[in-house]
What does this fold into?
Amino acid sequence: MKALFAGSFSPPTCGHLDIIRRGSALFGELVVAVLSQEGKQYALPPEKRAEMLRKITAGMPGVTVVCSTGLLVDLMAQVGADVILRGVRDAGDVREEMQIAQAHRMLGGYETLMLPSLPELSRLSSTVVRDCAAHRASLAGMVPEEIMEDIYAVYAR
It folds into this structure.
């Protein structure tokens, strides 16, 4: 079975990597999709975000990284994925993801599996990482070591 884990990954965090590791253990194949929402500004272009994800997932069997700007259900069909994988940090995330999951079921017939974050990563977000990086605060435990300098290079003032 093939799953798809999508997000903006702006930038990738240890929370994202945890969901990728755990998801790849559950599914034979995991496609990680870097999405860009229309009208939203990103400091990093999709290909750079994908490059960072490839760097931190190197050596993970069955994990591939792609970029997309279209509907998730169209990408699911394009890559031949069976299920959508989502990470959730708290009840607010679950509420939001339930609405999106229903749309994906209605539009493409796809089910969504939600993996809860590890407790130690449940308060981590890309926004927190961007803010810390902007002030050159330590990103230890927030982002994988392999991409830490890449993140500082983009966000540090």
Q: What stands out?
A: The chain has one domain: 2-119.
